[in-house]
Design brief:
Helix content is about 35%, strand content about 45%. Strands 1, 2, 3, 4 and 5 form a 5-stranded antiparallel β-sheet that branches. About 30% of the residues are buried. It is globular and about 65 Å long. Strand 1 and strand 2 form a beta hairpin. By secondary structure, the protein is of the alpha+beta class.
Length: about 180
């Protein structure tokens, strides 16, 4: 009986330790999201108004993309509906082909309406073009057009990636616990 109690105590301790680590990760992610939003809104004045008008949006403060024949990208972000934090999401892509190097960028997905946001929450948002091809210039958010109710804006942070690759479309999905 004491061994069972000891095992339960150990499992509970591990669970609370993991919960504390996750809370710390999310706290750091939230701080990164706020910092990136502040920077992007200073660089791109139309972004603030765009986000205020949007039904919802997701902010991925850092998305990394790298490849050497095989490649991929990954980022984690926060999701807002009507300006309120409602959850977290991940973005990722895999590629194969002629590619070498790596880049990092911040990405903002803007959902024009509830239907587009619901597709996103169901994991139905996919992008055929890689983010490397859609890096935007300052001021672009004010003149952006939605495609199927979703607008993807990627802001370069640095790096260089040469690629002629094929791969899975960028996929975005709500993270567990949303």
């Amino acid at each position: 009986m004491s061994q069972i109690l000891s095992t339960l105590k150990n499992l509970a301790s591990k669970f609370f330790s993991l919960a504390q680590k996750e809370a710390s990760v999310l706290q750091t992610l939230n701080a990164e999201v706020q910092a990136v939003l502040k920077r992007l809104q200073a660089e791109d004045p139309g972004l603030k108004e765009l986000l205020e008008k949007a039904h919802a949006y997701a902010v991925f403060p850092t998305v990394g993309k790298a490849g050497l024949v095989l490649g991929g990208s990954y980022g984690r972000g926060a999701v807002y509906e009507r300006g309120k934090l409602v959850g977290y999401a991940t973005i990722g892509q895999t590629t194969i082909g002629v590619q070498v190097g790596g880049i990092t960028f911040s990405e903002v997905l803007v959902f024009e309406n509830r239907q587009a946001f619901e597709r996103f929450k169901e994991g139905g948002v996919k992008f055929a073009a890689g983010a490397a091809a859609v890096l935007v210039k300052a001021g672009a958010a004010g003149q952006a057009d939605y495609e199927k109710g979703v607008l993807a804006l990627a802001y370069s942070k640095g790096g260089m990636l040469l690629e002629a690759a094929i791969g899975s479309p960028d996929s975005v999905a709500p993270a567990a616990g949303d």
